[in-house]
Amino acid sequence: MPAAALHPRASRPRSWWGWGYADARLDDAECAALGALLPGTLARPLPIPRVADLTIGRPAVTPPPSLAHLVTAEPRPRAAHAMGKAYRDVIRALRGRPGRIPDLVAHPAGDQDVADLLDWAGEHDVAVIPFGGGSSVVGGVEYRGGTHRAVLSLDLTAMDRVLEIDTASRSARIQAGALGPALEGQLRPHGLTLRHFPQSFEFSTLGGWLATRAGGHYATVHTHIDDFAQSLRVVTPAAAGTSWRLPASGAGPSPDRLFLGSEGALGVITEAWMRLQERPRHRASASVAFADLHRALDAVRAVAQSDLAPANCRLLDAGEARLSGASHDGSAVLVLGFESATAPVDDRLAVAVDLARAHGGRGGASPADGDAPADAAVGAWRSAFLRMPYLRDGLARMGAVVETFETAATWDTLPALIDAVRTEVGAAAEQTTGHPATINCRLTHVYPDGAAPYFTVAVAGRPGDEVAIWDEIKAAATDVLHRHRATITHHHAVGRDHRSGYDRQRPEPFALALHAVKNALDPQGILNPGVLLD
Amino acid sequence: MPAAALHPRASRPRSWWGWGYADARLDDAECAALGALLPGTLARPLPIPRVADLTIGRPAVTPPPSLAHLVTAEPRPRAAHAMGKAYRDVIRALRGRPGRIPDLVAHPAGDQDVADLLDWAGEHDVAVIPFGGGSSVVGGVEYRGGTHRAVLSLDLTAMDRVLEIDTASRSARIQAGALGPALEGQLRPHGLTLRHFPQSFEFSTLGGWLATRAGGHYATVHTHIDDFAQSLRVVTPAAAGTSWRLPASGAGPSPDRLFLGSEGALGVITEAWMRLQERPRHRASASVAFADLHRALDAVRAVAQSDLAPANCRLLDAGEARLSGASHDGSAVLVLGFESATAPVDDRLAVAVDLARAHGGRGGASPADGDAPADAAVGAWRSAFLRMPYLRDGLARMGAVVETFETAATWDTLPALIDAVRTEVGAAAEQTTGHPATINCRLTHVYPDGAAPYFTVAVAGRPGDEVAIWDEIKAAATDVLHRHRATITHHHAVGRDHRSGYDRQRPEPFALALHAVKNALDPQGILNPGVLLD
After folding, report:
1. For residue A44, which phi and psi values (nearest 5 degrees)?
2. Three-state SS across A248-304?
3. Model's pTM, two decimal places?
4. CATH code, residues B14-48+280-495
């Protein structure tokens, strides 16, 4: 599956209710086998939901003839645009209670279409939900509550072309609706790559990455898509504009940084000049095992505070390592990977492995420099990584409640934070369900001053109460993060599910500023209402 | 001089009208010798201006007793806070026509003082000019025009302490008024360094660096102070707040990035948690000479697009190289420097030198790894770098007009941009003065997608017309940058002198946003009026 998933056919159908490709979902037997690992789950999987079973009304508004060719009111695309792909979304679909189905889905072909649709929506009190690949796991692409007359899902994926390439500056102008594979496919003939590979790579767009500050391929230095944005074009209800293509600037506050992370609430990013990379010619990777997670954290900190800049520096706790096949003896595993288009990287790997061993790591023999990951753990990890969301949907079908969340914190608080999440979120999950919960943790991105842990919580639910249970687990997680001053999100975005944590975290001067910007750029309040602010 | 300048005594008097330390200025004979190099300058230097010769009126407002201890109305500090240290400022002082002398100078001791002063100023229509080291070269710290009842210069330098150090996360909480040497002096006992060394290091503050997005020590990767800011505390007239200490976050648009580059127009940065470095243990440097500047640009691009990440990658054109003693044969010189606290850097230097040689470079023998720069050109460059502003003041005393400006542009436009600046700005300088002009160029910071050139223009002026001539040269430079879509500033900030270029460069949605933020955070419009926006 993973290999095929990286080379999607345009015609390969996507699931309207679950993650990714419809044909990649677990079959009933696989679901049952998975459920058997989690005490208290259902005896047999919930059935696959059908669009035909949904109640989908007539749209409350009709677009004018000039926009009619861009807009559809067909049931299936409307159902597929009702929500993102969070566990909360999947279980609601499985339980036949999806989020508000949008009245219309629009597929603009260019900037002017976007501006025209925003104008029309503003005049008719229609909420507009910008929609890329729809892979949001934070309630970022649904309409939840509110008083708008109608809801339009603004699907950007018809705008998927690489428009211009500047090889001297290794940059390309790319439309925001390009999905990962389409984008890379257009860059490949030029020997260039954006090299941004989030877990959602196949099912998310450049515009979505930019609007949510997506975390990408690199575990160190340039960890977010932010750093690769050279210039943005933004269409807002009040004005449209493009920042200059600049390698860097000190001219006032960065205009791009205001729209990076704006999650469709301030404007629609329609295209961007992106900084590209040469494809790496040299690679080396290794994994190092640790008996003790806290010593492993010290090892990762030593690597992060060096200037070795590994492309991959993932620390898997014992549960994650077992799940991905990287280790079966209860060890935590640090997966290190280096790559370069300039020079061999074996020396850097060797220094990193030495640092890890100095903190109690075992293994990590320096493999040969070459194209393929030399260590079996690395390959096992990659396959499992792409497969995980499908497994989550399988667990959902078995009535489990699954929550994945991530954060970032400075090193001084990180060990206590990880312990507290295990203890407190685990207790919340067990108390609310009466079943034993599993919590795994990995570090996905590391910094000289801290790191980003990613947690997976799984527990059997009570049939029909899954959303309420999920909400309790989420509240417990939000509370732990808040008390440790760990960000409510490192790269999943705020959306609607993280609003309470975000509101507590956002400093007051910036809250005032953001509200002022929202009023100035979206005076009618039609853009993604409820995301980031009310 | 340079060695002493790096270890300032607290009591060493600063010049009120010119750059840096009063005792470091050129004497009359040195000024005359320098003037002799530039045809058409005066026969003898203009006299040193005296505060006693200025007309300094009584303040138009009186602070309340509760704030009186923070505020002075003495002539000398008021004169020293009237302007920054641009050429335009120095020549105005030399000609006895300085900028508007502020009514009062305040030295707050902490956040509450800042908030109280802003409250009082807001109630009494007093413009507040935040003032760090006062080294602005863009008119960033003066009051120019406007209708306020009075002007208060808010000098932050009494807030100069390192308040807290987190060694695990290599971070420190530092008050914004700390000048470079005071800041480094407090970090040194902990084996840590901010390693931010702008040319103004001795005479500028952390808050000034943050508010202007200062360019620092590193020529690649983390080139601006922005990247080292972990959390900011900001006091605005509307609210005060502190962002969380985070190594990274994806929770909405970055709150800190809105205040980085806000130049005192949106709020006062009072303290920051900053990311620190270990002191480097390994260093290596070399210089490579090029007969042709365009081939040298290709070499720099190759290095910038590698992942070698030199700490120093300065390209000096023939004029710059001659001026700094790095070369006397008309060659351009590329100065490469690597440093690391992790591992020896000779290999990286060797690969970089090979890349440079492959593009026609000569020299660059790999020196030994050690503490001291092995190449004479490197040392010569450093001394000249710190001396340059004093030379500029010497030229100003000889009636010359000197303008230094910097920008950044993508590689595809860079060679044409540099040629156009030479030709067009040179022609403007010569036409308006009738004297031959000198234009030198160096690259200070380099990126995979472009670089930041820094230009120095010098030409003999017409006595008394220097400001008008400077304005014409600046207008020509602004025009060339605009036509090449090169930023109006890479690290000097916008201030008041770059407003016309900034206004043309700023995309419309961000202009609307910035005005809205200004109105929300500074509703009375007292903060640094005229900077960034009206």
Report:
1. -140, 155
2. CCCCCCCHHHHHCCCCCCCCEEEEEEEECEECCCEEEEEEEEECCHHHHHHHHHHHH
3. 0.96
4. 3.40.462.40
Q: Do B505 and A250 touch (CB under 8 A)?
A: no
Residue pair A423/A234 in contact by the 8 Å Cβ criterion: no
CB atoms within 10 A of CB A64: 11
Minimal Cβ distance to A519: which of B215, B408, B516: B516
pLDDT, tens only, B157-175: 999 999 999 999 999 999 9
Give the helix/strand (H/E) hosting A430.
Answer: helix A426-433
What is the nearest CA distance from B521 to chain A, expressed in angstroms?
7
CA distance B364 to A57: 74
Contacts 24+ apart (CB under 8 A), B115-121: B115/B235, B115/B240, B116/B66, B116/B67, B117/B67, B117/B70, B117/B152, B117/B154, B118/B235, B118/B236, B118/B237, B118/B268, B118/B526, B118/B527, B119/B237, B120/B63, B120/B64, B120/B67, B121/B152, B121/B526
The share of chain A scoring above pLDDT 70, in percent, equals 95
Where does CATH 3.30.465.10 sit in chain A?
A: 48-279+498-534
Q: How far is B489 from chain A (nearest CA, A)?
A: 5
Identity of the residue in A249, A491, A512 whose CB atom sits nearest the CB atom of B239: A512
The CA-atom distances, in angstroms, between B2 and each of B198, B339, B378, B382 are 14, 22, 14, 9
**How far is the CA of B53 from the CAs of B26, B93, B144, in angstroms?**
22, 11, 21
Helix ranges (H only) for B306-363 are 318-323, 346-358
Which whole number is the average pLDDT over B98-103?
96
d(CA B288, CA B375): 10
Give the CATH number of domain A48-279+498-534: 3.30.465.10
Q: How close is the nearest chain A Cα to the Cα of B224, in Å?
A: 8
Round to the nearest angstrom and report the end-to-end CA distance of chain B.
Answer: 41
Of A260, A309, A507, Cβ closest to residue B255: A507
Burial class (CB in 10 A: 0-12, 13-18, 19+), A76: middle
Residue B370 predicted with pLDDT over 80: no
The CATH number of B162-278, from 3.30.465.10, 3.90.550.10, 3.30.70.360, 3.40.50.300, is 3.30.465.10
Pair type for strands B150-155 and B104-106: parallel
In chain A, where does the domain assigned CATH 3.40.462.40 lie? 15-45+280-494
The CATH H-level (homologous superfamily) assignment of domain A15-45+280-494 is: FAD-linked oxidase, cap domain/gating helix (3.40.462.40)
Q: What local confidence, expressed as pLDDT, does residue B376 receive?
A: 65
Using left for φ > 0, alpha for ψ between -120 and 50, and beta otherwise, residue B264 falls in left
What is the rounded distance in angstroms from the CA atom of residue A64 to the CA atom of residue A113?
13
Q: Per residue in A141-160, pLDDT tens?
A: 999 988 999 999 999 999 99
Phi-psi region of B434 (alpha: psi -120 to 50; beta: other; left: phi over 0): left
- DSSP H or E segment with residue B416: helix B414-420
Residue A486 token pair: 């760990």
Give whole-number Cα distances, B191 to A237, A409, B5, B280, B385, in Å. Answer: 52, 23, 22, 10, 26
CB contact under 8 A, A449 and B170: yes
Span(s) in chain B for CATH 3.30.465.10: 162-278
Task: Tell me the two tokens of residue A311.
Answer: 């492309």
Residue A427, amino acid: A
Whole-angstrom Cα distance, residue A129 to residue A240?
Answer: 18
Task: Compute the distance between CA of residue A399 and CA of residue A470 in angstroms, rounded to an integer.
Answer: 12
Q: Do B517 and A517 touch (CB under 8 A)?
A: yes
- Distance from C-alpha of B328 to C-alpha of B73, rounded to nearest angstrom: 51
Domain limits, CATH 3.40.462.40, in chain B: 14-48+280-495
Contact B460, B433 (CB under 8 A): yes
Check CB contact under 8 Å for B490 and A250. yes
